[in-house]
Every structure is written in structure tokens, then in C-alpha cells.
Amino acid sequence: MLDCAIIGGGPAGLSAALVLGRSRRNVALFDDDQARNKVTQESHGFLTRDGIKPSELREIARDELKKYPSVVVRDIAIVQARRLADGTFVLVAKGNEQIRARTIILATGLKEILPDISGLKEHYGKSLFSCPYCDGWEIRDRPLVVISEHPHAYHLAVIASHWSMDLAVCTNGANVLPPEQIGKLASRGIRVYGQRIALVKGSEGRLQNIAFADGTELERTAGFVGSQLVHATPFAEMLGCAMNEKGGIVVDDVGRTTAEGVFAAGDNATVTQTQIVFAAAGGSLAAMGVNAALTFADF
């Protein structure tokens, strides 16, 4: 039986596996290769690895795990997780393989639901991004656009304006900005376009302009997209974990959820703090929580 099953092979899961391996724990990390940042060309803000491709960071981390014989990385999807009467867990992998574990770390992340706009996906991760802190530096001082159908559009626009004042906001027909917010943006030279977007146009993922349904166009070279973030898997619900008002899994300061024996780390817990540095830190904390819980249980 595993000491811990880690579901999710991103920065949170890999960090957790590293700490647990160093804690002499028998661990398996399950990775279905569906990371949200697969479309990302470079990851930023991670000390000593600024600008690294997410796939390269993943491979470096996996190589580092190889020196810990009690850690196994498996490229397989988990499809079900449930608690048994004795308090341990059984995970069901694709193909109906069953794995037993004393504890679980959910590092399954989130997935994005982008606005349904033709051409947007082709530019996402290349010239349209989700986070100014992650990609704002590379597109600074250029003609930027914020595309968002959500009330968060105002916050995103204000933050994005720090990287470029040549900024426009497109709400794709959604009435999400009250007049006072539109006025405040206008006072800073930020234009708001409320009409529906017919097409995001560019070449090889490089944005050139926004074509509206009324026939007008807006020249832009890059920008940010407000997307809806939802849980990538149903495991938190399956295992009875409570959620907070932001939609994240409720955790304490060591990643412990409200479900006994279940820990969570990364985007699925933080929700609004989705940089890889936060995910890696959360994975490390959750691993320490797991090791402490197991050690005290066996003491």
C-alpha cells in the first residue's frame, strides 16, 4: 500500500513527490498529461527557471525524482477515488487498475473555459495570455487588448494597464462593466468595446486585430483573456472535500482538506493564485502535512 497517492503531475504534484521522497515515503504520482499550461511557450516568475518551457520544467523535476527509489511516476489517468471503511483509499486508474493508499494529495489543477470566439484559441498562449504577472513583461508597451465577458474585466484591465497604457477592453457583447468603471477606464485613455467579436485575426498565433460583428476592426498585437476556471477533475467532490467561496478546495496551512486523509495543493486550492511558484510551494506544504500525519499516526 502506498503512503501517499499524488494525483496530478504539475508543479504542485512534483514538488509534493520530491518532499515525500526525501521523507522516505512510498509514493506514486499519477499524471494524465493534461496540464493547463501545455499551450504556454514560456513560464515566468519561478526563481532560477524564468522563461523555461513548462514541458522542460516537468522533465527536470521528473529527473530529480529518479534518485528517490520510493517515488514512482506513472503516466496514467486516475478515473475514480474513494475512501474505504478502514479509512484508507482506493484509486481506480484507466483500464480498471486499482491502487491502495493511506493518504491522497489532490494536485489536479484547474482547466480554462475560454470565451467562445472564433480564432481565440489559435492565439492563446502565443500572443493572448491569462496573467499579466506571467506574460506582461514580454508584451509591455504594445497595443494590448483585454477580452473578458466577466465582471473581473475591470480588475484585469486596471492591472494590465501597468504594462501598457495603449489598452482596449472588449466584452464581446456582455454587459459586465457599469458606467462608473467605463468612465474611470476612459479617463485613463482605455477604450471599452461592447460589441460582439466575430473573429480574432492574426498569423501563426500572433495577434493582428479584433474583427467585430458590426464590421469594424481594432488593431492589437497582444493581450489578455479573462477565462472561467473550473476544477479539472471531480475527485474533491468524490472524496467529500469542502469548497470555499472562490470555488477552491478548503485547506489548512499544511494542505489538509476537510476530508480525513486528503490533502490538496496548487491551483485547485488557491484558484486565484495560479502561478507555478504558488503551486510548487503548496505541493511542498501538503507533502509535509502528509508526512507529519502519517508519522504521528504510526508513533
From TrEMBL:
- Quote the SUPFAM superfamilies the UniProt record gives: FAD/NAD(P)-binding domain
> What keywords sit in the KW lines?
Flavoprotein, Oxidoreductase
Domain FAD/NAD(P)-binding: residue ranges: 3-274
- The answer, when asked if Methyltransferase is one of the entry's keywords, is no
Q: Which PANTHER family does this one have?
A: THIOREDOXIN REDUCTASE 1-RELATED-RELATED
Q: Which cofactor is essential here?
A: FAD
InterPro entries linked = FAD/NAD-bd_sf, FAD/NAD-binding_dom, Ferredoxin-NADP_redctase_2
The answer to whether keyword Acyltransferase applies is: no
**Short name of one Pfam family for this protein?**
Pyr_redox_2
Quote the subunit structure annotation: Homodimer.
Q: Which domain of life is it from?
A: Bacteria
User: In its UniProt entry, what is this protein called?
Assistant: NAD(P)/FAD-dependent oxidoreductase
| Native organism | Cohnella suwonensis
Q: Which Gene3D superfamilies match?
A: FAD/NAD(P)-binding domain (3.50.50.60)
